[in-house]
Amino acid sequence: MTSAEPAAVKVREKPSTPRERARTQTIADIVRLGREHLAVHGAAALSLRAVARDLGVVSSAVYRYVENRDELLTLLLIDAYNQLGDDVDEAVNAEVEDDFAAQFRALAKAVRSWAVREPASYSLLFGSPVPGYQAPGERTTVPGTRVIVRLVGIFDAAYRAGALNASVSPAVVIPEKLAADLAAIRGEMNLAAPDSTLARGVLVWTSVFGAISFEVFGQYGRDTFAARDELFDHQLSVLQGVVGLQG
Amino acid sequence: MTSAEPAAVKVREKPSTPRERARTQTIADIVRLGREHLAVHGAAALSLRAVARDLGVVSSAVYRYVENRDELLTLLLIDAYNQLGDDVDEAVNAEVEDDFAAQFRALAKAVRSWAVREPASYSLLFGSPVPGYQAPGERTTVPGTRVIVRLVGIFDAAYRAGALNASVSPAVVIPEKLAADLAAIRGEMNLAAPDSTLARGVLVWTSVFGAISFEVFGQYGRDTFAARDELFDHQLSVLQGVVGLQG
DNA sequence: CAATGTCAAGAGCGCTGCTCTCGTTTGTTG
DNA sequence: CAACAAACGAGAGCAGCGCTCTTGACATTG
After folding, report:
1. By CB distance 3.0 to 4.6 Å, which of A144, B212, B237, B244 could disulfide with B164?
2. Is the minimum CB–CB distance between A43 and chain B shorter than 8 Å?
3. Where are the alpha helices (DSSP H) in B2-65?
4. Nucleotide closest to residue B71 (CA–C1')
5. CATH top-level class for B7-243?
């Protein structure tokens, strides 16, 4: 079903003592069982008691390893972000270095196939926020931005390589306040691309996830679209044109 | 806070007897209280017992009026769909009849402002599916498709009026299987627009909701974009170009 | 060997959805 | 107007949940 070793579990610096090794293993087991429950029943139905039962232990025992339900959610969140990030990295790295269009498509398809494969995890990351749960930014920001960082990287590399159509139609003016936001992003991420490219990149980003969310969340209706692969592929082609990525 | 009369509550054909009038009123009260709880605590935390408390009644009493929690969710779902549909209709109807670009922008902005105003309801409709809850299609399909029907209507009317740029760049071929899906839609909805327009319309549809979802679900990060109105406006402008809507 | 620390177990609190029973209220009808 | 049946609210109860606290068993360490 799912891979045995969750990527998000922090390994202690010196897990020398058998106690610490056992403890690390138990936490890994809890995360693995939690991921299975998440996949089957969804995030809102994630129950520490059920995880404890599967672990063959009384419910209060898991509180030795996981502070509370929110903490387990955070572990699963980080785990899922890293799974997605690994999938995306692998797919993009498999493409030729200067074929930016192929890299873009590979990224989007990797996100989509992971989302379809793990709808509950996708819902946890990109669906409605879990009520009463606030992700701790200091732990989730880095894994949570891997995909967008990679996507922006592709667009910016394409721009630097002169692979972007400058004359995307139609030209749209960027208002001043939006330009300020984009300038801040450009500075923070060391980008070269101009405002119009960055803004269109943001649109492509939201559009890709919008299309995937519609599919995973069942917004298309039961049998409106049978050719979902072709639909997504077509959407990527159009979005490619939006940023001026020639392929 | 919220309007007093929920649009979704079906009025009996003959609410003549005082019993039935009282019953209808009680159900309306339950939906109203449910909507308030939804707005404050979210869908997953919607509790019949809490609604009963606010109604000043013991928990088992509400089961006289609402079959179970899922039934209340369905009522809230229909209620929210109709609120959104009403908002969208009003906004679109306020535009000049042959200004299709303005109608498109009015529709998208109406959806966004409703979503920002009612994030919990938006999450219920367009976020992660509530685990274990399956919306009864025969009751939710009609209100649930009001927005997309309206959007497609705008695009098709624009096409019939010759207001769509035929030469959207770049031309993208529509694979056969996707064309079959689009043909089915064209037949069902009595449309005139060609495949490429319909396919791009679907992309615009998903993109608009993708952008709104990112904003409502906090995917942009806390302070990445301060100029959210301008960002959305820009995205609409680009998407307008995607379907060839000149404005 | 003894002190220390870690662990699973169990009881318990308050919350949830939901069911069943038991009187009471209420509108209708003879 | 009185009798009746339907509708109703209250309450107890079951099983599940997150979470806390105490207790006794065990392993590690000095």
Report:
1. B244
2. yes
3. 18-41, 48-55
4. C17
5. mainly alpha
Q: What is the pLDDT along chain B (247 residues), one digit of tens a residue?
A: 444 334 433 333 444 677 788 899 999 999 999 999 999 888 888 999 999 999 999 999 999 999 999 999 999 999 999 999 999 999 999 999 999 999 999 999 999 999 999 999 999 999 988 877 888 989 999 999 999 999 999 999 999 999 998 766 667 899 999 999 999 999 999 999 999 999 999 999 999 999 999 999 999 988 899 999 999 999 999 999 999 998 7
Cβ neighbour number for residue B141 with a 10 Å cutoff? 13
Single pTM value for the model: 0.92
Q: Do B180 and A227 touch (CB under 8 A)?
A: yes
Task: Give domain limits for chain B.
Answer: 7-243
Listed as ranges, the nucleotides of chain C within 7 A of a protein C-beta are: 6-12, 15-21, 26-28
Residue A202 sits at the chain B interface (C-beta within 8 Å): yes
- Closest Cα of chain B to A5: distance in Å? 26
A131 sits within 7 Å of strand D by its CB: no
Structure tokens belonging to residue B114? 């409703």
- Torsion angle in degrees (nearest 10) through CA of A47, A48, A49, A50: 60
The answer to whether residue B185 neighbours chain A at the CB level (below 8 Å) is: yes
B202 and chain A in contact, CB less than 8 A: yes
Out of B141, B210, B226, the one facing A207 most closely (by C-beta) is: B210
Separation of alpha carbons A203 and B242, rounded Å: 12
Helix (H) / strand (E) element for A188: namely: helix A176-189
Closest residue of chain A to B42, computed from CA coordinates: A131
Instruction: Tell me if B209 and A210 make a contact (CB, 8 A cut-off).
Output: yes
